[in-house]
Design a protein that fits this description.
Elements: H1 13-17, H2 33-47, E1 53-56, E2 62-67, E3 113-114, E4 126-130, H3 134-139, H4 162-168, E5 170-182, E6 184-190, E7 203-211, E8 219-227, H5 229-232, E9 238-244, E10 253-254, E11 262-263, E12 274-275, E13 286-293, E14 300-304, E15 308-313, E16 325-335, E17 362-370, E18 376-377, E19 383-386, E20 393-399, E21 403-409
Antiparallel strand pairs: 1-2, 2-4, 3-12, 5-16, 5-19, 6-13, 6-17, 7-8, 7-16, 8-9, 9-10, 11-15, 13-14, 14-15, 17-18, 17-21, 20-21
This protein binds 2-acetamido-2-deoxy-beta-D-glucopyranose (NAG) (3 copies).
């Protein structure tokens, strides 16, 4: 059992790339129960690093403050001698402000933040990590799939194969650009708590930074908010990231659930609940996400809001994205498992159609891309795509305040969507 870390002793290169798949993680299905229990325990031990401080969040989460150099990323053999980059060498919004990384700052507390903050903060030189529970793992279809998306969930507008889309059960309402080299993307998204009909469904709103064809080697970096009962055990709206370099097969995961993303920020926990949430006809709360490629080191950085540089995905994780992205997408995705043979009532965005507009529909505003000169600019030639506009729709626009924006979402099942 303990040999799953044998990869770090220099097995085949292929294995090195599959660090997320410890031998403990391979094919739990069909094994004797006692063995599976041991596998789960071993996997939990790998994921949950010893904490210097632990904070209990009102939503039931346990946040472990783990020393920055003890995070899971450094179990990766390619990162054994890695020197952590404590700041990006380049920021597309101009002069880089040191205070964005980790310094606790009382001025920030008024802004949208994470629920666990009400019960404490992580000390300097630690990062907050949402502790994985045994139940989290047992909800997954297998140990191997825990923390991973199912295959082929990326909308591919240009060659949308209706059969494939409907078969996979994933539905999208997105805006996108392609045909250029992109070095990042930004958006401000308002945050909602869409209802999920079945625990195995989810609803998310995110941006995708895509490289390669839509084949087996698709590279993707993703970030946004999601409601996923399977992944988290509740209906809370949570900040998430995802990455893969092989179309969701062996590499990559949500948040910090495998070696990959290197976090430097002590205030924001991946996978933690976002607070507060927008109300229908009430106050609107939005989050900003910026992902960009550092032209010097090649790493892909992520910033949350104006203040929090979270960390980076090292360039070596990727093939196409080691150079640049070929497509950017922004928007919503839900799983439609067609319970009872009918369309799911799982909501996307606010659960209301774009027509309802501000205060009622979900939006992405000031969507931007980082161009070949490393400048943030409004994207040109934005397209929109949805599989079934009678279930979830998207409408884009442009104005002075919001730049390039769109409203998206819908209720799912209705008289017009069965
Ligand atoms: C890390 O450093 C050690 C000692 O210098 C060296 O033997 C090893 O090959 C290095 N590992 C990597 C992945 O560069
Ligand atoms: C998916 O299936 C639905 C219902 O069967 C159908 O109305 C819709 O047109 C299909 N989507 C696409 C993109 O063909
Ligand atoms: C999530 O919401 C659904 C209804 O939308 C409810 O049936 C379910 O019990 C909720 N799950 C949890 C864990 O609260």
């Amino acid at each position: 059992m303990a040999t799953q870390l044998g990869v770090s002793h220099g097995l085949a290169t292929l294995l090195l790339l599959l660090i997320c798949l410890s031998s403990a993680a391979v094919a739990a299905a069909g094994r004797p129960v006692a063995r599976q229990r041991l596998d789960v325990r071993t996997h939990l031990k790998r994921l949950n690093k010893p904490a210097l401080k632990t904070i209990k969040s009102p939503d039931g989460d346990i946040i472990d403050c783990v020393h920055i150099s003890h995070q899971l990323a450094f179990d990766h053999p390619f990162l054994q001698n890695h020197t952590i980059q404590m700041r990006p060498s380049f920021h597309p919004e101009g002069v880089y402000d040191e205070s964005k990384v980790a310094k606790p700052d009382s001025n920030k507390q008024q802004k949208i933040t994470q629920l666990w903050h009400v019960n404490g903060k992580c000390p300097e030189n630690t990062i907050p990590i949402r502790r994985t529970s045994k139940d989290d793992i047992l909800r997954a279809s297998s140990l191997k799939r825990f923390g991973k998306k199912k295959h082929r969930t990326i909308p591919h507008p240009m060659s949308a194969d209706p059969d494939l889309i409907n078969e996979s059960g994933h539905q999208h309402a997105i805006a996108y650009v392609e045909g250029d080299k992109y070095y990042g993307a930004k958006a401000t998204i308002n945050v909602w708590d869409p209802k999920i009909q079945q625990p195995n469904e989810f609803s998310l709103s995110q941006l995708w930074i895509l490289g390669g064809s839509f084949g087996e080697d698709l590279n993707s970096i993703e970030a946004g908010w999601q409601v996923s009962p399977d992944l988290y055990g509740d209906n809370n709206t949570r900040l998430f990231t995802y990455w893969t370099s092989d179309a969701y097969q062996a590499t990559g995961c949500y948040n910090l659930l495998c070696s990959g993303f290197i976090q430097i920020n002590s205030e924001i926990a991946m996978g933690a609940s976002i607070f507060p949430i927008s109300g229908y006809g009430g106050s609107q709360y939005d989050i900003s996400i910026l992902v960009w490629k550092d032209p010097k080191e090649g790493n892909w950085w992520m910033q949350f809001g104006n203040d929090y540089v979270l960390g980076y995905w090292p360039s070596f994780l990727f093939s196409y994205l080691a150079d640049s992205a070929s497509m950017i997408e922004w928007g919503g995705e839900v799983v439609n498992s067609e319970p009872d043979g009918q369309h799911t009532s799982t909501q996307m965005g606010s659960g209301h159609f774009p027509e309802e507009g501000f205060g009622k529909a979900s939006y992405f505003r000031n969507i931007q891309v980082v161009d070949e000169s490393n400048n943030l600019r409004s994207p040109k030639g934005v397209g929109t795509f949805t599989e079934q506009s009678n279930c979830y729709d998207v409408q884009n626009g442009n104005n002075g305040d919001w730049g390039s924006y769109f409203y998206y979402g819908g209720p799912g099942k209705s008289p017009n969507c069965q």
